[in-house]
Amino acid sequence: MRPGDLRDDGAGALTLNGARYLLIRPETLVALQKAVETAVGRRAADCLAAGGQVGGARATASLPGTGEERARRLVEMGSTIGWGRFTLERLTAESLVVTVHRSPFAEAYGTSATPVCHLTRGVLQSLATLTLGRPARVIETECAATGADRCRFEAQVE
To answer: The whole model's pTM is what?
Structure first.
């Protein structure tokens, strides 16, 4: 995927490889995240991850190739659409590890005692489940909002 693959149809829609995308400021999403956290507490993380899973499943399903090729394409897509600089750190039959430098969610959130990149975690959970061929659980083991230099996501099959 190249940034040039992003298209404006002139009628209010942006697409990347035929899929519609939306440009929205990270602060807007983080304000929504914080409001949901206030309303439902710790369950907010799961709500946001569920949203990421839906988008991740659609994005991953639309990508051609093997599991590894899909993983590499989705990681590239994450960087292209502004979700930070994604790196596929490890992919084995049992695990997937992705790091993200400059996560817009962590940057907009500010300081936190716990990881905050739940949308990204959800997307990567969909990717891991498809790539590893069975349900996988993703944990954000490092987050820039907690003081780490990057966000790190580790997926393990369940």
So the answer is: 0.92
